[in-house]
């Protein structure tokens, strides 16, 4: 009986060592992808900051400025862009963002554009109308895809297919903290509220006219916001996966130590039993 018990423990130790190797490798891969995601987000910021300063300059310096992108409507239907991951094993990363957004959708007429396999599966299962499933692979989405997505949604907004556009993503705070968040994208209420209403006028000449330029760059800016949120979400996913795999590796180490202790005790008990049997046999 002792021999069988020792064999089982040995097999369990071997299994845990294999699991530990996998979780350690996944932790290292996640750390590498995290650095790339952070660098990608940082590198894209100057371009979109320039776009933002351009359209705030236009809206802030034109008297009686008006654009369909800034006009607030009665919200009859909302559209959500929701960014989640393609895989699990990332702690609460996927469930946190999906549950938060779904709770906000409750009682509203909505449609959704999901990014990532987990988001597509989540909303398909709950029969929420999906605008497109073309972005089911979050890892394969490029900045060009974000621009295409933004232009599609801007066109649908102008057509009146929905009255507000909201982005759901995960904000990367630190290696140990990632918080789900939602960001209103359309209409651009903040632009209208930030008007300077001064008499200086535009210092830059826009062709053919400032309003046309404003309306043309909004989809580009929205694409940049989506891209930035995607980079934040990917960084958050990799940070959450790294933390989860680090915890799993530590748990594996602890289990291996406990199993090794049990194995040594079982072996010591088997040896003691054999010695006792030998001594008992010699006394006869």
Number of β-strand runs? 4
Note the total helix count.
6
**End-to-end C-alpha gap:** 25 Å
> What percent of residues are in strands?
5-15%
Strand/helix succession: HEHEHHEEHH
Content-based structural category:
alpha/beta
* Main sheet makeup: 4 strands, mixed
Tell me about this structure.
By secondary structure, the protein is of the alpha/beta class. The chain has six helices and four strands. Helices cover 63% and strands 12% of the residues. A four-stranded mixed beta sheet has the order 2-1-3-4, with helices on both faces. Helix 1 (2-61) runs antiparallel to helix 6 and helix 4 (143-159) packs across helix 6 (210-283).
Summarize the structure.
This protein has 284 residues and is an alpha/beta fold. The chain has helices at residues 2-61, 93-105, 117-125, 143-159, 189-193, 210-283; strands at residues 78-83, 110-115, 164-174, 177-186. The protein has a four-stranded mixed sheet with strand order 2-1-3-4, sandwiched between helices.
Topology:
Elements: H1 2-61, E1 78-83, H2 93-105, E2 110-115, H3 117-125, H4 143-159, E3 164-174, E4 177-186, H5 189-193, H6 210-283
Parallel strand pairs: 1-2, 1-3
Antiparallel strand pairs: 3-4
Which features characterize this protein?
single chain; 284 residues; alpha/beta; four-stranded mixed beta sheet; 63% helix; elongated
